[in-house]
Amino acid sequence: MARILVVDDDGQTIEQIARLVANAGHTVDFLLESPYLIAKLETSPPNLLLLDVNMPEIDGITLLKKIHAAPHLKEIPVIMITGETDESLIQACFQLGAVDFVNKPIRPLELVSRIRIALETRAHIHAIQAQKNALQRGKSLTDAILNSMQEAICVIERETHLIREANRVFLEQLNLPRHRVVGERCHELLHDKLYACQGCEGPENSQCILRVTTESGESHTICLSSRDAEGQPRHTQLFTLPILDATARTERIVCLERDITQSRETENRLMHLAFHDPLTHLPNRQLFHDRLHQALAQGRRHGQMVAVMLFDLDHFKHINDTLGHAAGDQLLQEVATRLRACVRESDTVARLGGDEFSAVLTNVTDGSQVRKVAKKMLKSLGRKFTLLGNKINVTSSIGVSLYPRDGDEMDDLIDKADKALYQAKDAGRDTVRFFSPWVMEEGP
């Protein structure tokens, strides 16, 4: 039920309209004197205003102008009542905000119908405005939530691959204003910048995460590695979440990018510590065994020799006791540097603990090749070391076993290299011994 205000200087017209409005289920109020209309509207605004065009004191056109000029009154729908047929007058009223016209003499069915249409239109407008306000409140809340997050977030349309939403972090990472991002195609804007998206077309895009998400209708996660503007490594984790329509088809895709560079670097550091000696940064015993296992597998596959070498610094305890552990640590670090310089990139030098070192030489042609490397190591270690300002001489003993001559199992080869090491110590130290002595006589 609506409340309708009728403004007319003709009492009979008001009486007729009041009867028709009441029969239609609405309440009616009336005003015979037009000068009081604005005050009436401000104190008690109706749902609909029926306004006569021709009135003696203030005409309807003038009143309509005042209503239209007041922001808090202009939303009231106004139906003009007139006996005039001047089209310019009618056009002027519509331009001032009138929603309809009713001609005198009043035809009941026409009046009731036009009232119903005006009220329904007003209700629809209010509903649309309420929905718009709710959407705006929802969007404001969504924007506030998205912009408070520390991850880069965007929403991409499935059909066009256009970016429809982007939060603050996303814009900051691209270093672009919002109008340069929203409405752009994702593969054109982001290729080689944030995501591994290579476009929407072409076979090269078969693994694009957006396409995978679209086709599966399920969320996906990938990790990406790139470099930032300063050339530093950057690791990110990209999550995609499909937004489905009423038919369960992917309509849009939410992309969330999380920077995992710090956690990845921490993970890499922990991984390095797990498999490397913290003092020399050489592979530790566990990684040495893994490298030797791989070298033996490759040797079996390609019919190649593998050399296992064990080192022991002569009289290392005496250096620790006389110069201190700091000097001992420095010596171990410099020994590691010199040993690495004596082998190829494909070979492995490891620290097993204390003053014990080891090496794995791959793709060995014969024993003489290993003998040359061993002598190179002894010569390198024989140069003076400067430890905390002290110049000292250090010697080493080396024991060597060869695959497949001395065995084909890892533990057996390590054990035989260890026995050869003790033979070198018994021989006076600062020398190399092979488990098979005749190897020393091979080659030049």
UniProtKB/TrEMBL annotation:
It comes from the Bacteria. Residues 304-437 form the GGDEF domain. Keywords: Phosphoprotein. Residues 218-272 form the PAC domain. The modification 4-aspartylphosphate is found at D52. Coiled coil: none annotated. Residues 3-119 form the Response regulatory domain. This is Response regulator PleD. It comes from Candidatus Magnetaquiglobus chichijimensis.
